[in-house]
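Forwarding these from the shared drive since the link keeps breaking.
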Amino acid sequence: MKIGFTPAGIATSTGTMAGGGTPFLGGLGQPHPMAVLLFGKRPAPLVDRRRYPRLTKALRKLKSLKDQVGEMAGMGEDDGGVDLAEGRNASIGRDGRIRFGLELLEESEDDDDFLVAVVGHEIGHQPWTWPTFNLAGMTKKDLDAMYREEEAKADRFAGRALAELRANPDSVCDFLISTERFEAHKPSDYYPAEVRAEMIRDAYSKRLRALQKPKLVLPGMAGRSRAHDLR
């Protein structure tokens, strides 16, 4: 997820691909091309969490959020995880492990709504489902379009996660919009902040309405439930 003002590596990686550099095929030991497109050629270096005991509670909170949101994507409690990394961004690997930026966590550890949105966005990428493909020959325009739609997919999942956990989308939406105001030029590789915020809110509203609808219980199902209760 693009959190910081200048997400390192993203512009470089897309520029390299568009310029006809060596393609990333996503083979064993190589970064997946979508991960390169989103997060750069190298993930943010990990940080030893033992050096930051003040963030122990926040990291436990992130682990709990990963478990709850991950269930929506078919992840088990033992799948994936949360690591502390350098910087002010967040990313996710094909193994489902989230790298959460140290600076980002220090700034937002008390904003539960924001944390739900970031974790939801990263899990929303569902990188374990990415197919192997070749970026060679793709134009900058093609790469930008691919990036936009991948980010949009993750944004919509974040909106649904916010609804599932009864969190509020205002924090992350306001953050996206306020952060974009500091950018001299609006990037072409992801939707404008106002559009992203609208997608998050729309997905949130639709899922919340679905959760609030009375559940339909068929007569046969109700009978089985009562019989089970009497055992």
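-- next protein --
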Amino acid sequence: MEQTREDHDVVALVRSAGLRVTASRIAVVKALSRQPHADADSVIRSVTAELGSVSPQGIYNVLTTFVEAGLVRRIEPAGSSALYELRVADNHHHVVCRRCGAVQDVDCAVGRRPCLTPSETHGYLLDEAEVTFWGICPACQSTKRGATQSTRTSRPDRSKRRSQEITDQQTKVKENRSARKRR
């Protein structure tokens, strides 16, 4: 099978992070290039369609490795699964539809990190500001669905979100330990 220009670029991207090139890593990058802001399940479906049977845990591990290597950015809009994107070279934000969950990139107002200045840093050395804008996307605006029919009208309470963050962090620690053992 002849390698395309896209395949060559994907291989170069993976190698640029000092990572081994594998079929699953190539397939994950391709999936994210086709579908920015994809959740892990969408990536798994895309990779499975391309490669056949794959281990979902293996794809989660690839995503975690890519985030740690700086190849992929993980975003977590409130009330949503983690989403992954390849756009990592700048400080941009996101706009999320409250009804359907569609996500789009929004360029930073100033363009350098951080692009927002808080009134107080509390001694922190700031390097990034993450902003999520919420609203109704054009597609949902054109439908006749009322606000009462919206599936995403409210954001989860902080305690549920914090509990999920702790669970996610524990999972990430376990994944990191497993990854280190395999290397």
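The helical segments are 5-16, 23-34, 40-51, 56-69, 138-141, 158-182. The chain has six helices and six strands.

- D.
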